[in-house]
Amino acid sequence: MAGAKLVMPGAKMDGASIYELLEGERVSVTAAVPTVWLMLLQHLEANNLKLSTLKRVAIGGSACPPSMIEKFERSYGVEVVHAWGMTELSPIGTIGSFKSGMEDLDWDGKLKVKSKQGRALFTVEMKITDDQGADLPHDGKAFGHLLVRGPSVSRAYFKNEGGRHGTNEVLDAEGWFDTGDIATIDPLGFMHITDRAKDVIKSGGEWISSIDIENTAVGCPGIAEAAVIGIPHPKWDERPLLICIRKAGATVTKEEVLGFLQGRIAKWWMPDDVVFVEAIPHTATGKIQKVELRQQFAGYKLPSATAAQ
Question: What domain count does the chain have?
């Protein structure tokens, strides 16, 4: 519609291939999930490369680590715009654009805003609820199930599959669609995804955000990628297990990773264990496959679980 050239990467989503396309086709604006940009940034660092034409990247699909935003903007001069949506929203729900005056914030203030998924687009309404469906405050602290409503939100699935509670309906009586995400909404309307409902870790009756732990962990020197899953615990129901990939040549240890996390996340969010692997499974679009990770670590015993028995 804009008359711009459209460059599609095809199946080659590795850092070297993406870099070749960006430079060879002189791409100025692009979008992908964080895993793709993780591979690109590692390729840039390993080969001391720069981005000559890229000006802006939109990042969605999963929450972008603050360290990635900082690397893009401060090391390569590329603006990062967070976004969120779903196919069921046709497909965009929020854009992380600044409100007037936010351009004058210091870097830490800007990074805090950019790390959120942003404000709802025109016609899109958002709210968060607890497990019982009661509305939660938009104070930026309470997090709950993210629901959306609007004329572009789907009412049903093709062939009426995937309806609510065994019915064909995907909306509740008031027209709200449960996105399956867990989020906060602040007083200015900025939404922040903290987890998928199926991935949130419930420990001692409280929720732990696996995404926040992951995004903090990848800022640790020597860590290339991180994933967090809940592991059954005899006392707390579930506790977080941090699964990491080391950068090439790195020798970072479990103790160093936990030391890095100390003070950066809530004390009771601290992973009960850290394991290092060669690879983390992904979908075709680069999202972490936590179902496969949970299968891979089925039966895993946390050190704290053994002590509690």
Answer: 3
**Does any domain span residue 155?**
yes
Edge to edge, the sheet with strand 177-185 lists 125-129, 144-149, 177-185, 191-196
d(CA 53, CA 47): 18
What is the Cα–Cα distance from 18 to 39, expressed in whole angstroms? Answer: 9
CB contact set of 285 (below 8 Å; sequence gap of 6+): 33, 61
Confidence of residue 307 (pLDDT cuts 50, 70, 90): low
Predicted model pTM: 0.82
- 131 alpha-carbon distance from chain centroid: 22
Q: Domain of residue 160: give its range.
A: 125-196
- The DSSP bridge partners found for residue 270 are none
Q: How far is CA 86 from each of CA 2, 154, 182, 218, rounded to the nearest angstrom? A: 23, 10, 14, 25
Residues 135 and 127 sit within 8 Å (Cβ to Cβ): yes
